[in-house]
Structure formats: structure tokens, C-alpha cells
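Milestone M4 deliverable, item 7.
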Amino acid sequence: MIKWPITYTDYNGVEYTEDFYFNLNRAEVMEMQLNANGALEEYLQQIVDDHDGPKIAEFYRTLILKSYGKKSPDGRRFIKSAAISEEFQQTEAYVNLYMELLNDTEKIKKFTEGVMPKVDTDQDKPSLENHMNVL
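Output delivered:
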């Protein structure tokens, strides 16, 4: 999980600096891996190598919105939903974060590393071959 302070001006002209939270759990990363046929890192490297601006922008838009959430008061849950993501996307805080990340490779690296769960074992790597017999 990463806490990212964002300064923005709302639509009433009031400036705020707030902390926003972003996190992907191991299951969410597994789903992203499976959607990329087990090659998420390779896909990302390919679109970077190809200088495919639209795909890079879409990937990071998805990463921001998929990882955004709100911590429960007791800290036991990280609450996410389509409505929470949409609400965030409708703010200048989202716009400022998106522009900040797409214009600074060091910040995008820090953000990406911050939202990704710590993986220490091979148990978190998807293996499509293990499931082919089931299908």
C-alpha cells in the first residue's frame, strides 16, 4: 500500500492537499497476470519498448483506478468499488496524479512499486498449465 499526497483545486476554487491510498492485493495482481496470459511484465515492457503512448496511458489509468481505495477506520479492510473509483476519477486530484505520473518516470516507478504487493514465493505466480486439465 502506498499513501500519496495530492494537492488539487476543487471546482469551487478551493485548494486541498489530501492523502490518498492505493493498493493491489495478491489476488488482484494474479487476475491482472492471468488477463495478460501470465505475461504482465512482458506486456508492459513491450508497450514501453514500442513507445505505445495510448496503451501506456491506458495501463496506468487502469492501475490508478484499480488500486485506489479507502481504508476502513479500523484498518482491517481496504475498500474499493466501481463507485469509489469513479468518484475519485471525477476529481482534480485524479487528474493531477495521472498527469504527474505520466510525466515523471521516477514517480511512476515509485507508485507502481508501492501499489504492488510484496511477493516472496512462486505461489503468487500464475501457472496456466496447471489449470489446462480442468478445462
